[in-house]
Amino acid sequence: MPSASCDTLLDDIEDIVSQGDLKPQDRHSARKHVVPKARKRNTQKYLQEENSPPSDSTIPGIQKIWMRTWGCSHNNSDGEYMAGQLAAYGYEITENASDADLWLLNSCTVKNPAEDHFRNSIKKAQEENKKIVLAGCVPQAQPRQDYLKGLSIIGVQQIDRVVEVVEETIKGHSVRLLGQKKDNGKRLGGARLDLPKIRKNPLIEIISINTGCLNACTYCKTKHARGNLASYPIDELVERARQSFQEGVCEIWLTSEDTGAYGRDIGTNLPTLLWKLVEVIPEGAMLRLGMTNPPYILEHLEEMAKILNHPRVYAFLHIPVQSASDTVLMEMKREYCVADFKRVVDFLKEKVPGITLATDIICGFPGETDQDFQETVKLVEEYKFPSLFINQFYPRPGTPAAKMAQIPAQVKKQRTKDLSQVFHSYNPYDHKIGERQRVLVTEESFDSKFYVAHNRFYEQVLVPKNPTFMGKMIEVDIYESGKHFMKGQPVSDAKVYTPSINKPLAKGEVSGLTEDFRNRLGNHLSLVPHTSVVRRDPTSSRMALRLQRLHQDCALRASVGLALFALLLAFLVKIYN
Questions:
Q1: How far are the Cα atoms of 111, 137, 193, 202, 559 from residue 511, in angstroms, in the given order?
Q2: How many domains does the chain have?
Q3: H or E segment and range at residue 456
Q4: Domain interval for residue 478
Q5: Residues 226 and 319 reside in one and the same domain
Q6: What predicted TM-score, i.e. pTM, was given to this entire model?
Q7: Do residues 238 and 276 touch, judged by C-beta distance below 8 A?
Q8: N or C: which end of the chain has fewer CB within 10 A?
């Protein structure tokens, strides 16, 4: 066994060379005896490589990105903000998934099918060798799931850093930002409201007024992602609404996990916010209020009725009941009873004539008996809700309800089917045929045959595709009705209301480039006028960014090359001396 120590100390590693070994200068002189071998070169390929610019994969900011969003309007708002920031930095948002270099998948965790679609999209992206960034409630709630390993994640409160995550992912790195926004230890509502965004519909602005909730429903996975209630200040929300109207928006949706709980964490409430918002709504524009749970709206019924009667606020409210059985509601930890829900509905129907009340129902919650389900059926038969969202119960991993004794799948499916039949047994709009209504036109129907408008009660009215109607409030005569819609014929001599003095942004155009964000973009936007709306050619903007990033990349390569050359020169000087 050789000794672990040496008898002679070495002053330098070069002392290991024996006297019989060739010295560096001897090796160099011996090179003259080496005969180089000629190597054929593909001249055409070489010239192409010399003339080609560096690969897009090495220059973040010039790639194509495809986005897919599942779930609620809050999630859709997050998606709009992420698209806006990426486009402002030069990325091209494409509707063609196969052409994209990176897929940004914005997920929903409410039900199993939504997560299944999300998982399948990840698998497809991997099969097509796409770069992937994940967002939304699924990775926020369960970032350690096996199918998420090694993938970049942007948290629901970190969407203002989506550009950083995308850039690092383009470079081949995996980045995860899942932290909470805080100010002096207090949790904030999320990313700033004045970030750039690309509205899916340039006429509709979705504003998240708060994130999270105060409940702890046993079936809910969203709570794991969005957390406890955190509200935005009233002045920031009003300013966002004002800016949106200046950009040609004619309809605002207020959204959150529970709008009724707004402000309880910052010393205010929902009616106070709504009264401030209606002050900035121009004539011909409308405000739609999002979902609210019964416990918190009960405290403000009188004020809410007054607001819902305002001519620029839709007489519409979404109040989920989930079940008409108090036993089931207790197991769900919904913090109200059926009588509370009926009190809200009855009061609003009396004080706001014609109001549209939408609700949600879960079929087959653990422990739900046939009698419990029949109570729910009776509730639907009694109120004949014009808008009813029926959901089969799905146990979500990590929730208390997932650990409860489950009802057989066939029973859940049958109850869902039975309740759907009850819902389709009545037509809520037949009595409105012959009415003259004022409607706001905001989008095109799925079959592209009509424009879609909504009346005072946020009921869907299909009107002829006249381009002059889009974004306007017009009068129509109702001549036909279906389960979910009415059809209206425009009145020829009626007044047309144009709600905004500015022309709406073009589809795909970035809105709200603030001074702070402009500074972060860099000098390439220095020539753009300093206004709240940046109307610019997206192609020229992307070209400017590509040139800027190309110059930066070339400068970096030159610096690295010079440094390596200096090191090589120093090494050669050392060995030859």
A1: 32, 25, 12, 9, 37
A2: 3
A3: none
A4: 431-490
A5: yes
A6: 0.79
A7: yes
A8: N
